[in-house]
Amino acid sequence: MEESVASARTPSVIGGACIIASVCVGAGMLGLPSSGAGAWTLWSSFALLLTMVVMTLSGWMLLEALKHHDLRASFNTVTKAMLGPRVNVFSNLMVYFVGGILLYAYITSSGLIIQGVTGLSSKLASVAFVAVFSLVVWHSTRAVDRLSVVLVTFMLLSFVLGVSGLAARIDFSVLFDTASQQGHYAPYALAMLPVALTSFGYHHSVASMRAYYGEERKAQKAILGGTSIALAFYLAWLVSIFGNLPRADFGPVVVQGGNVDALLAALGSAIDSERVANTISAFSAAAILSSFVGVGLGTFDFMADLFGFKNDRKGRTKTWAITFLPPLVLSLLFPFGFVLAIGYAGAAAAVWACIIPALLARKSRTLAGGDVGFRAPGGQAAIALVLVFGVVTVLFHFMGLAGWLPVLAF
């Protein structure tokens, strides 16, 4: 009897995988179609698969480094101890920038979606969104787990209904762009990488997963499960979108910075089923909410560790304030394009979600006890792959801003 009670209280890998998947899916699902319009179906799919493999490895490398510290340690603690205070300060800025700009993007997008449904001011809707759903993060990781399971289940159902409606209307000449005379798709995938990287940017939650399970092995399985779920969502989504919405129809979406409301409007005009359009809109809203609470949890735990706030009501309220209020204020004052925000997040995330974890894993293996316990697979080759991928992603982002990468003209 006691054994069954104990096992019932052990967090499931499925719950953790849902948290990881929910952190990923919001940004990627809504930012990838516009950023991948140049690369189109095959090259976008390849870029996503490569990014998923690299980002799963980098999360495992972070787990490997965390094994040298207690369960309350976060990114700040492990980076400072293993790479020094200067690297740690820069890394912390990148961590908070990514968490903050993702929350900023979700808050802004949620306001636009709620405005479209209710007619409320987008700014008022954004404030209400944060006021209600940030309290889930303030309450506990368990609350985020339960909400994430509900949201991922809802997303799966609405996604299946919506995508099945889109899939029934797929035009293969549109899906493979056979009518276009433009046969060079690979170069456009370079500019897509920062958004693809952000689409698997769950690394805020790695330390939270380790603390949640109390060990690395289950956290490793949860990470792999979460990134696999996210990849399956992304591939099915892109095929469905690119099979229904011709390249030329992405023009208005790209002009508006890839904003979610513009994407949904373009989809609504391209398909003739109101039911499918409404289901896709419901899915998009759930994706933003699930990613908001997932990213919020990881950023919340990181800030608590960074400032040493206690895990009581007063301490969690302080952490809540510095986690959610700055992106809310910036969203109200300076809203801008969704894909642009995600691209900046991707460049910063490449530093702390690829480069830093690779350096941490390499350092971990030189420490006493580094060969004991959890170790990310792949050896030095995997470390090199993650490191190089992070560096080139940052370079591609700034090359794109400078106009040195090909941009699909509409």
TrEMBL record:
Xref: InterPro entries: Amino_acid_transport_2, Trp_tyr_transpt
Chief place where the protein resides: membrane
Assigned keywords, A-Z: Amino-acid transport, Cell inner membrane, Cell membrane, Membrane, Transmembrane, Transmembrane helix, Transport
Cell compartment(s), UniProt: Cell inner membrane
Membrane topology type: Multi-pass membrane protein
TM regions (residue ranges): 12-30, 42-66, 87-107, 113-137, 149-170, 185-202, 222-242, 282-307, 319-336, 342-361, 382-405
Keyword Transferase set for record: no
Keyword Transmembrane helix belongs to the record: yes
Summary of the function given for this chain in its UniProt record: Involved in transporting aromatic amino acids across the cytoplasmic membrane.
PANTHER family referenced in this protein's UniProt entry, alphabetically: LOW AFFINITY TRYPTOPHAN PERMEASE-RELATED
Annotated family: Belongs to the amino acid/polyamine transporter 2 family. Mtr/TnaB/TyrP permease subfamily.
Protein name: Aromatic amino acid permease
